[in-house]
């Protein structure tokens, strides 16, 4: 009902373009309006078979991907732009000299690999801080695979954190461990880490190779063993390079400019 109302109002207000951030939900209604509808594919938009089936019913509509890796889920869609998510650099403090710990920041779910981060910490002897929520559906995973290792010293679980604590944790880390088990269309935490100068060690899945410049702003690895071997190499990296990559590719200004170009493309079509 809300979608139908929004589309109706778009007609009444004589809008030039409607930008859809609700994934596939409004797409069946688009033939009812003359206003062009541009859809940004967010989250797991193309990771599930049902979602891909629905998008493929509307391949003629214009789409924006948030990474080129995301397009692999439905390469036949009509992409008018790729626009990376951007952050406000003012929210992240660059830190030249970090602390002496590794960091996992995110949802404590199997797909995010917090248990792999613990193993990296154990094998390298470098303390690990874990921060993030435990979803109800992953409570058993947390109790069996994470909590037994938490001792407040070598492995510390902090829980959920707000913006200030997030900034402090990211800036103080030797490296962010982003050892995801499944492809993600965009991992914002990697950009946030690099904004503070902290390099990322991430598995070569989804958008990780697009965000992390291997050997410059972190290391893109194939598996747990690769992550373990990458940790001592972090000392070779210049933290300023990580910050610079964010400045050049992942700011709010870059995102806004990308969407303006996408709008111009759609509005310039016959």
TrEMBL record:
<dbReference type="GO" id="GO:0016757">
    <property type="term" value="F:glycosyltransferase activity"/>
</dbReference>
<feature type="domain" description="Glycosyl transferase family 1">
    <location>
        <begin position="101"/>
        <end position="224"/>
    </location>
</feature>
<keyword id="KW-0808">Transferase</keyword>
<dbReference type="InterPro" id="IPR001296">
    <property type="entry name" value="Glyco_trans_1"/>
</dbReference>
<protein>
    <submittedName>
        <fullName>Glycosyltransferase involved in cell wall biosynthesis</fullName>
    </submittedName>
</protein>
<dbReference type="Pfam" id="PF00534">
    <property type="entry name" value="Glycos_transf_1"/>
</dbReference>
